[in-house]
């Protein structure tokens, strides 16, 4: 299968649509979808807080046990997300989501029932975290790719921002409810609340108007399709950088449920309510970031993605130096804001720059690197916390994130230098853009996806990717145009 390049590795931004914050809500299907997802996401955040607190209670405050739980929950993302992306490209995404959401509801019900009965042990939490992770690994690629079907291509960037806003508005509400529920009724009832919350999303999926979904053509079963997705990404230096940045942030910069629990219990010596409050405080910044992303009228540049991720690493490192609970709490909304801007920028960049026929597989790789590094990062940061204290999980995580981002850019640039013809070097800059090939206006189904209807007065054939190629001034060749 041949694909046209939709976007190159350059940092130039292309205007893609309206900056109206809530434009995608005009689509009834998306409105139904995001409402159900909002209720379900509240339950998800309740369980995230409750599960980590439960592990601390059962293990006697072991940071390593929290890290192992987090690792087991995200390990299936490494193993199964690519297959989940292939499934999303092959089958009805709505039906796949109904299956995966039901799976996660049942796993939450099982852990909650054991906890309420008073028989839960640490190994039970490990087991159910892994079972839950299997459903999440297959769910995430389909959910990411399904946004374009419920909102339509013309609202895609806005829908991504609003979908993220729903998740982070839930983050603002969920941890606070979790803290109150745990303090008044117990951890088990908080987990059972999540099991019930899945009903809202399942009802929303069943009520969607299927005739109005902007469905992409399912990919027929064939050999080598999973490898085809990897090959598509491997040929795009810009996607390699974006995915590498997502890996760094997901592995070392997004362990907040664990690091917050460790700081509250081990450093500040406070209880469940203080822990739950931190999640809601952080959600303020995350929600603001999501709303800013929803208003964005341009696809963010790769330079923005890399720069924002670098800022995340710096802020996380600084937050580990907070002298008390108050200053630590003040740092969290800033962290949430920048993390959210980074992830939505990476998500928008990738979704709007790939061919629809491989979008499910590419988004599966995105979710794999974003969540799949957690089995590495969480136990490592938990180990650092046990050896050097809770602050080490933040300071070490921030510094490791910055190191990985630098290594990713260095390796991709070296690979680009080795692979690219010298004639592609731009004399004026060490970053050379590829403009997307404009689709033929007369073609009702252009091969190059036009997510929000950008038109151009010129049309040109798809160009090969031009790459980041740093050349010392003394060695720069004469550019060819």
Automatic annotation (TrEMBL):
PROSITE patterns: MFS. The keyword Cell division does not apply. The lineage of its organism: Bacteria, Bacillati, Actinomycetota, Actinomycetes, Mycobacteriales. InterPro entries: MFS_dom, MFS_trans_sf, TM_effector. Pfam families: MFS_3 (PF05977). The chain crosses the membrane at residues 21-43, 63-84, 96-117, 123-140, 187-208, 229-254, 274-294, 301-319, 325-350, 362-385, 391-412. Residues 450-461 have a biased composition (Low complexity). Residues 428-481 are annotated as: Disordered. It comes from Gordonia alkaliphila. Residues 470-481 have a biased composition (Pro residues). Keywords: Cell membrane, Membrane, Transmembrane, Transmembrane helix, Transport. The keyword DNA-binding does not apply. It is found in: Cell membrane. This is MFS transporter. Residues 428-443 have a biased composition (Acidic residues). CDD domains: MFS_MefA_like.
